[in-house]
TrEMBL record:
Keywords: ATP-binding, Nucleotide-binding
Domain ABC transporter: 6-247
Name of the protein described by the UniProt record: FeS assembly ATPase SufC
CDD domains named among the record's database cross-references: ABC_FeS_Assembly
Amino acid sequence: MSNQLLEIKGLSVHVEDKEILHGIDLEIKKGETHVLMGPNGAGKSTLGYALMGNPRYEVTAGAIRFQGKEITREAPDKRAREGMFLSFQNPVEVPGLTLGTFIRNAMEQRRGARVRLWDFRKELEKAMELLQMDRAYGDRDLNAGFSGGEKKKAEILQMLLLKPSLAILDETDSGLDVDAVRTVSQGVKEYQKDRDGGLLIITHSTRILESLQVDKTHIMVDGRIVKTGDASLVERINRMGFEQFLDEADQNSLCPERMEDSDGRKNICR
């Protein structure tokens, strides 16, 4: 049986008639943890949304294969049932639907069978304890009134209970304090114990990676993967930042002019 989990070949993606991703190639094997890093505006989140099938992100070239199956045109809900999971930078609030009910329904869709309430509560409470979440959150409306940290913990909670084959974590550590990052990292480490499950961690920071085992690191600049390496590449980013990769992209004429991102750095290709 093939060990290949995700295979992306020549993927180009448009958003509102603008090409954001240009010929992305990426492969993730079962049990591997990959990190996708890059400056703000590089296209990292676009890749996550495209993999999950968000209709706003139009695939104009290339293909996505997941667990040996072509899924380039599949609907998001079908990808989720097949074992793909995407956490969001800014999880939406859903009044009228409790966190517990949402997760239990999603588990039943994923498994194709009813999940007994008693068994579910035991799993839920165990995962909430790991993430240092008050059990009361399970009976609260999904993300409604949650702090930024609790929203991110709720995303990791879903990942732990759904047990996806591939988890894509998009800026999961953004906006979190040191303690919250440590707790979220513990949840990710717990997921890593399932050595068949793959991880794609999208980030421009290295905080969440400090206690995780990373197999491969990819650097994205201007919608292209410009460098792939092992975990040592994360340390190189820590020391030197992304300037070296931006300079290389400019030298290769991939970006004729840059504009400032929200942090005042000239990272975004015009």
